[in-house]
Write a structure and sequence with these properties.
Helices cover 40% and strands 8% of the residues. The protein has 460 residues and is α/β, with parallel strands linked by helices. The protein folds into 2 domains: 11-81 and 278-457, no CATH class; 89-275, no CATH class. The strands form 3 sheets. It has a 5-stranded parallel β-sheet, with helices on both faces. Strand 7 (313-316), helix 10 and strand 8 form a beta-alpha-beta unit. Helix 9 packs across helix 13 (395-407). The radius of gyration is 24 Å and the shape is globular. The chain starts with 10 loop residues before the first helix and ends in a 13-residue tail after the last strand.
Length: 460
């Protein structure tokens, strides 16, 4: 845990830092009104994987904001969403595994109980895909996701479900599966199962039930799971056939069923790319990061070059971190003091806070200002049209933009008991070769006493 020190800047550095921060504020304010970008994220237009995001929407010719039209948002995606890390993913090991898998006929997998923050929901979706692959199922219905409450960002169990495309790039998923594991059908919904009207639906099932273990059971052997699944199917009263397909529905215990370390490293390191986020959300995050870095560079050029001038700290303060007002107040102050320490230690003048909590954002902003650091969030870096489009997104979709921006922060501060923070740190370590600075510190720090107990179950 970080402890706040009393180190102070030298007079000269304090002056430089103050000038730098003032320049940064002016540049960020001007950035928010700009409509231009500085980075070409899409050098090769043949990389576009999916059809227009709003191909099924009605004509929007009367709208003044181009981003609220099919053509406008697709232009934003084309300009800002690429290249993606997933475009460089290697699915050779997945293809090899699919060739070795004994595939069952007339058995289909369905999972709609994928709830939690975006990291937990994504983990559930990936476990669902892994379940279907390991079982050798005939087909997989596109997983659905239980969305957050629109009034409370801490309410995950809403019983309101969205299609997989609410969060993820479905066309990308279909294309990858078709190219690497065409043995398994990908279906839009249960009604697309052949002879659906005669299908049998066993009671909701979990990996734990199939493996014959308790709630803490995790799969660590793919062949053993396949054998257990065969036994489960053989025990059903109605056996699968062309006339009576079996549709296996997974229950709510699906988030942490398969352990990534149980797979071959090449599969484990690339499997998460099957659930790539939506292209419009990636585009918005890239715009935010690009403008952050451009503002930092311009501010540094307008003052004098100082340590940390081109870096920013990422902080995540999410709804799953606290359970009471008192706990929130105490933890928020710890976050604020830790942010101040990081900004002072590395002389960083810009802090990006990923949160849907306006009070948390305000508190961290006010405290960070005491050491000359400017705190901003995603909305501060978007233009008017972009903000209007951003406001059409649900809270959980907006949190994906935070996640993607925080991935690219030079330093990150999160919560030990937060799945979001834990997965983010693991992903950051995969994407970069983490090194320690001269004082022995890494790039990432965590606040809190309680460890997230499923850390080794998070897919990257």
């Amino acid at each position: 845990m970080i402890a706040l020190t009393n180190r102070a800047f030298s007079t000269q550095n304090l002056i430089y830092g103050t000038i730098f921060t003032l320049a940064l504020v002016l540049l960020i304010l001007s950035t928010g009104s700009s409509t231009t970008t500085t980075t070409n994220y899409f050098p090769n237009k043949s990389s576009l994987h999916q059809t227009p995001l709003f191909a099924d929407s009605t004509d929007s010719t009367n709208k003044t904001n181009p981003l609220l039209t099919t053509e406008g948002i697709n232009a934003l995606v084309l300009e800002n969403a690429f290249p993606r890390a997933s475009d460089r993913a290697d699915f050779v090991a997945l293809r090899t595994q699919c060739r070795r898998t004994p595939w069952r006929k007339n058995v289909y997998i369905s999972c709609i109980h994928n709830a939690g923050d975006i990291v937990v929901a994504r983990n559930s979706v990936l476990n669902c895909i892994h379940f279907a692959l390991s079982a050798g199922a005939t087909g997989l219905m596109l997983p659905q996701v239980e969305v957050m409450s629109v009034t409370s960002s801490s309410a995950f169990k809403t019983r309101k479900y969205k299609e997989m495309g609410h969060f993820f790039d479905v066309s990308w998923f279909r294309n990858v599966m078709l190219a690497n594991c065409g043995n398994m059908m990908i279906l839009d919904r249960i009604e697309n199962v052949p002879s659906y009207e005669y299908a049998t639906f066993p009671e909701l099932v979990s990996l734990q039930k199939i493996m014959g273990g308790g709630a803490e059971t995790r799969n660590t052997n793919g062949e053993n799971f396949h054998h257990k699944f065969d036994e489960y199917i053989a025990g059903l009263s109605t056996q699968p056939s062309g006339k009576t397909p079996v549709i296996v529905r997974l229950d709510e215990q699906n988030a942490y069923g398969f352990k990534p370390s149980a797979d071959e490293p090449h599969i484990a390191n690339n499997f998460g790319y099957l659930a790539e986020f939506r292209q419009d959300l990636i585009a918005l995050s890239n715009l935010v990061v690009d403008r952050l870095k451009q503002s930092l560079q311009n501010a540094a050029n307008s003052t004098s070059e100082i340590t940390g001038a081109s870096e920013f700290i990422g902080v995540y303060f999410g709804p799953e971190i606290t359970s009471s007002a008192e706990q929130k107040s105490a933890l928020l102050e710890k976050f604020a003091r830790a942010t101040m320490e990081l900004a002072s230690r590395y002389r960083i003048k810009l802090v990006y806070v990923g949160t849907s909590d306006d009070d948390a954002l305000k508190h961290i902003r006010n405290r960070a200002a005491e050491v000359g650091a400017l705190v901003i969030d995603k909305r501060r870096m978007l233009t008017g049209n972009e903000k209007e489009y951003f406001d059409t997104l649900d809270l959980d979709q907006q949190s994906i933009v935070d996640y993607l921006v925080l991935l690219k922060a030079n330093r990150f501060l999160g919560s030990r008991q937060s799945p979001f923070s834990n997965q983010l740190i693991l992903k950051r370590r995969v994407l970069t070769n983490e090194t320690l600075d001269e004082s022995g510190h890494g790039r990432d720090d965590m606040i809190g006493e309680t460890e997230f107990r499923e850390q080794d179950m998070l897919w990257q």
